[in-house]
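Notebook, p. 212. Picked up where the previous page left off. The plan for this session was modest: take the two constructs that came back from the sequencing core last week, fold each one, and keep the raw output in the notebook itself so nobody has to go hunting through shared drives later. Recording the first one now, exactly as returned: residue sequence, then the structure token string.
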Amino acid sequence: MEKYYFTEKGYEEFLSNFNNIKKELDEATANKAACGAGSDTWHDEGFKIGIGEEMMWSKSFGKLQEIKRNSLVVAPVEQNEKVLLGNGVILDDGSKEIFLFVDGYLSKITKNRVSLYSPIGAVLLSKTVGQSVSIEVAGDTKRFVLKKILLPSEALKKIIK
């Protein structure tokens, strides 16, 4: 059984997304039922659309239910020796610096945050200051030097603005 690790902030965002998708699923189900009430539902275009929406939301919600069951909220270790969950990193490509917060599972793309489960997060995990990392971006390999690792408490301040 796969575990899904979250920071506290990441888990709060996951639960918000979980509840929004549950609401969409409930609405799609209600719309399908309303379209089918008292009619020949098989020929009703609204009913067919309702079934499609319900199936789409149901599939997404099923995956989120699995993630929720297998979730662990982890308090990041307050260290900056190597990149771990909750650390911030400053990457330098020779012309500019990029800040990224290394989070656990992310249910949606968020600016300046990468998941441990993403290709970028996996490359950064356990790296130390001065190490070079290669990341493929839009089919092009970019090379960065890990310039600085921020303590989780410092990094969190940068993403909560």
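Okay, moving on. Second construct, recorded in the same format:
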Amino acid sequence: MAGLALTVGPAAAGGQWLGALLAIAAALIYSVYILVGTGVMRQVSAIQSSAVIFVSAGAMSSLLMMVNGPHLPTTASGWAVIGAMVVVATVVPVVAFLAGLARIGPPMRR
């Protein structure tokens, strides 16, 4: 809660209610995602689930790019950073998370 308070506004009377509500909504949505994902992972592999997630994210990103226009890197180092973000910060963690979810389930499972 302290982190949430610092994120939405450290001033005693300040802060943005919308920011607080969005942060709480994100936590609730992620909790539902984990619980639903546990059931899904009993039927499919982590790779299959990840593929659906990444294709869906790619489709939404493509729609946003069609609306707002592309903002692509212009240098090789920019593309290298994008590639590293895709592999190191997205693909590996999502596959590992889903594989772990299939093995151990959500933390509160009985």
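Notes on construct two before I forget. Residues 83 and 89 are 10 Å apart (CA to CA).
Flagging for discussion at group meeting.
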